[in-house]
Every structure is written in C-alpha cells, then in structure tokens.
Amino acid sequence: MLNIVVCVSGGGTNLQAIIDGVQNGTIQNTNIAGVISNNAGAYALERARNAGIQAYCVSPKDFASRQDFNDAFLKKLEELNPDLIVLAGFLVILPERMIQVYRDRIINIHPSLIPSFCGTGYYGLKVHEAALERGVKLTGATVHYVDEGTDTGRIIAQKAVEVKEGDTPEILQRRVMEQAEWIILPEAINEIAAAYQK
C-alpha cells in the first residue's frame, strides 16, 4: 500500500480528485495518510476532514523563523511516514533537506505544459494569464518529480488542453483543471502505486 501525504494551500480541487480516485478505485493500492496545508483557512482541510482524512495546518506565520517552520513541517511529514508526497497546489518553497530526504518521492502538478509558463513566479492564475497573453493555442498540465529547481524535475505525465477564443484566465484555469489536472494527477499516483511494493 502506497502511503501518500497531500500538501495544499487553497481550495483543494486536485486533492478532491485524489480522494475521489482512491474511493472509486481509479487510484489503487493507495492510502491518503494525511493532508498538510500552510494556510489555516484552506478549504482543502475541510475536504480532507469530510473524507475522514487527518488534516493539519503547518503555517510559516506560526513560527519565529523559516527554519523553525521547516523543522515543524518535516517533523509532521515524518510522523505521517509518506512513501510519496503529492504537491497539489502547494505554494511553499520546499526546504532543501526535504527534497534530499524524499528524493524521487515528491511529485507536483503544474497548470501548463512544462517547459512553457513555469518556474519562479508562475503559479495559479498567473500561468493562465501568461498563456493567454502569449496567444498559445494549446496549454495543459504537467505532473513532474520535484527537485531543487522550480518546475525542473523529471516529467511524469502531460495532457494538452485547447485554448478557446474569448477565454479569460479563470475560464482557462477551470478547463485545464477539468480536462487535464484532475485526470493526470490521479493517473500518475495510480501508476506510482502500481510500481510500488512495500
């Protein structure tokens, strides 16, 4: 059984896709050990609790220094003992020690076709604003492993989504979620779980 911890900062729609996948069997051999958010007001925490999953807030605001936050965050992860950490809209720069400890065991979902519209400063609606500004006809989402860079880790899966005439960043964001993110993130977890033997 693959033990996963999902890290989120906001509404948790990708988390919901994972919860649904585990419940309906499209994600097999997987247990969601816990959900961690850096934001006490994140609706994702509510989604986790509604599904009977342990949910925790570890916020930088609650600590005197970044180092103290990093230590607390790593301690919580260790308690949950994940085989895989899933960043599902987690807007926190990971401590380098975490990347070292969990090398090749952290994945992230990014709302573009990497290497387009990724890296420092590209997150949330900013990605879709940039895609529309550039005038691309295709965008999409990418699941990738996390390394020391920003959106530079090895790509696991990508799915393209059409950009339509009259799209706003919000409309495009929703289409990318529905047609790409909520599909390829559960698929990637399922593939990793299938290859995982504890």
Can you walk me through this structure?
- It is a single chain.
- This protein has helices at 13-24, 43-50, 66-80, 96-101, 125-134, 169-195; strands at residues 2-8, 30-37, 55-57, 84-87, 106-110, 138-145, 155-162.
- The protein is of the alpha/beta class.
- A seven-stranded mixed sheet has the order 3-2-1-4-5-6-7, with helices on both faces.
- Helix 1 (13-24) crosses helix 6 (169-195) and helix 5 packs across helix 6.
- The longest helix is centred in the last third of the chain and has 27 residues, at 169-195.
- 41% of the residues are buried.
Summarize it:
The protein is an alpha/beta fold and 198 residues long. Helices cover 39% and strands 22% of the residues. The radius of gyration is 16 Å and the shape is globular.
